[in-house]
Specification:
Layout: E1 2-5, E2 10-13, H1 20-41, H2 49-52, H3 71-74, E3 81-84, E4 93-96, E5 106-110, E6 116-118, H4 120-123, E7 133-140, E8 149-155, E9 160-164, E10 170-172, H5 174-177, E11 185-191, E12 200-205, E13 235-239, E14 245-247, H6 249-252, E15 259-266, E16 275-281
Antiparallel strand pairs: 1-2, 3-4, 4-5, 5-6, 7-8, 8-9, 9-10, 11-12, 12-13, 13-14, 15-16
Length: 287
């Protein structure tokens, strides 16, 4: 009898009906086939960031110096990447965050030849860290015009929504859209929760709504390492279809006060409706 593990790449032979010679020949042939298969299926990844023109270093946040003793932990988030074809040329472009004060974010335009050009300044999405710090970025076509728009999640400053102008630039529509939550968020996701054909926006918040650069008290941390429920309340922006959004999280019971690190949405129970998964720090994840 032969037991074979493709992952380990070895065969375990036990004495049975096969004779020793035939068993040895059969095993040799199997190993040869495995090695031949490895030649076709093996692959390796190479760092081509410098050659491609995307070799940037994320600049971390530096918060109120009252937090200096835990600053390495506080500054361990904010490195975000979001990919989309923002200019509809059939090539995937990449937004890359920076989080340090007055450091520039990046929008890498795909040149189609394996290289990228940073066009964030021309596009109007570079200088996002004058106030607060960028934590996450997500693309989504909220106005159904066929062009992806960009939502930026921040600490200690309003989140920002940028509408795609179809010409390589973006317009900040945060105020008229009503999406400028200040909940010290770490994550966001676009999804159509009510099936009306419009993308809605869920924001996962972390710290309660305090200014992390100008603290009046350092009593801002989680109240428990396993069951903390004193984080920032999460937000669900319902798309009203006219360029505005309404936060419906409280009425739907999904304004979770956990310390949310990331969020996801999918139809977990095959009901035809999207569910939300929250990855919470210092406590249970929530579905």
């Amino acid at each position: 009898m032969l037991k074979y593990s493709a992952q380990a790449g070895i065969g375990l032979v036990t004495v049975g009906a096969l004779g020793l010679a035939s068993r040895s020949s059969w095993l040799s042939k199997l190993i040869d086939q495995q090695q031949a298969g490895n030649a076709w299926t093996s692959f390796r990844l190479r760092d081509i960031s410098r050659r491609a023109g995307v070799a940037v270093t994320h600049q971390k946040v530096v918060l109120d110096h009252q937090l200096d003793n835990i600053m390495p932990w506080m500054a361990s988030v904010g490195a975000a990447v979001a990919a989309a074809d923002y200019n509809n040329d059939g090539l995937i472009d990449v937004f890359v965050s920076s989080s340090g004060h007055n450091t520039a974010c990046h929008l890498f335009h795909n040149n189609g030849d394996g290289t990228f050009t940073d066009v964030a300044a021309q596009a109007g999405v570079a200088n996002l860290n004058e106030e607060g710090g960028v934590m996450d970025a997500v693309w989504g076509d909220f106005d159904n015009d066929g062009w992806p728009d960009l939502y930026i999640v921040k600490w200690s400053a309003p989140n920002r929504l940028f509408r795609n102008n179809h010409n390589g630039t973006f317009t900040d529509v945060t105020i008229p859209s009503g999406t400028g939550d200040r909940g010290n968020g770490n994550a966001a996701i676009w999804f159509d929760y009510n099936g009306d054909g419009l993308l809605d926006l869920y924001v996962g918040n972390y710290f309660p709504p305090v200014d992390l650069w100008r603290l009046h008290t350092t009593l801002i941390m989680h109240d428990d390492f396993e069951h903390a429920r004193n984080g920032g309340h999460n937000v669900l922006y319902r798309n009203n279809g006219n360029g505005t959004f309404t936060n419906v999280a409280p009425e739907l019971g999904i304004d979770d006060p956990g310390w949310t690190l990331d969020v996801g949405a999918c139809d977990l129970f095959n009901t035809g409706h999207l569910d939300i998964y929250l990855a919470n720090d210092f406590g249970q994840d929530r579905i």
